[in-house]
Amino acid sequence: MPADSVLWPAKPKRGWLTADVHQVAVVMWDGTVDDVFWADRKKMRDGRGPFYLASTAPFEVAYSLKASSPGEESSGSPTLDQSVYTSDAQPVMGQLTVGLSLAPERVERLLPLRGRGQCVTSWDIALAIKNDCATAVADVVAQHTASDLQGKRQAIRESIRNQLAAPAARFGLQCGSVYPNLSVITCSTPPVITRPKPPVITRPTPPVITRPTPPVITRPTPPQSAKCQTFSRAHTPQAEERFQAWMRANPTGYVFNHFRGSNPGYNLLHQLPCPSFQRQATTAVQKFCCTDRACIERTIRELRGESWQLCGNGCCPG
After folding, report:
1. pLDDT digits over 58-76, tens only?
2. Looking at the predicted structure, is the pLDDT value of residue 215 above 80?
3. Which domain holds residue 167?
4. What's the rounded Cα separation, in Å, for the pair 234 and 17?
5. What gap in Å lies between CA 130 and CA 137, rounded to an integer?
C-alpha cells in the first residue's frame, strides 16, 4: 500500500472488519456498495467483498502554477496548465496548497479513482481536481490587481476555497484551508523590430475555364449503429437519474459494471431485467449501457481485453 494512500483494500480478520478512529470501512457486494461504517467493528456475511478502508484524517495536495515565461517552471508537484494573469494583465506564478479530508458518509464517491493495487492516493486526488484548481485560481486572480496579491491575500484565499468546495465534494471530500503563494513575474519588454515590407508583385489573372458541373449522385444513408452510453456519478452529477431513465426506456438492454481493477469477476456484463438490478443500482461504479450486444462487447474488449465475465445469474447467456 502506498504511503500516501487515502483508500486501500482491507481483509477481515476472523470474519470481522474493523474501522479504527479516523477510518471508514466500505463493504462491496456484486459490484455495488453494500455497507459503509466508521469507527466500528462488524461481522462480515459470507459472499461479501471486496473490502476497503479509507482515512478521514486531513491531508494536503500541492500544485505549481504554469510558468508564464521560459525558465520559470517548477517541479515536484502537479502543474496547473493554465496561465494566470491579474486584472491589470500581470503574469502570475507560484504554488497552491489545498487541505482536504474525506467525508465518511460520501466515501463511495472516491471508489472510481482506484488505480494500481486498488488504492487511491493523494496524488490520484490531486490529478482528479487539477483542472478545477487551475480554473479557480485563474478566475479569482483575474478579479484582482497585482498589488492585491499581498494586500488582499485572505480574500483571495477564501474565494479560491469557495470555488473548490463543489469539485472536492464530487469525490466525497471536504475542502479545508487553502494556501495560495502567488507573485507577479517581472520581465522586461523585448524591443519591437520593424522590417520593411516586400514589394507587391502583380501577375495577370489567368482566364477562367468553366467546366460542366457533374451530376449529384445521392446515396441512401446507411443506418446508424448502436452506440454505448456511459453513466458515472464521479463525472456527471445527474448520472443516477439518467441511468435509471435509460433502464426504463431499454428494458432488455445490456449493462456493463466497470468496476476497474484486474479481477474479471467484478467486471460483469448483464442483460436487463437482471436480478442484480432489482436492488438499487448506483452509478458510483461506472456503467456502460447499449441496446446491441455486439457493440457493447466490442467496447468492453477495447477497454479491458478479456478481463471481464458474463453475469452469473444467467441473464446474459454466452
Report:
1. 999 999 987 544 444 445 6
2. no
3. 59-184
4. 27
5. 11
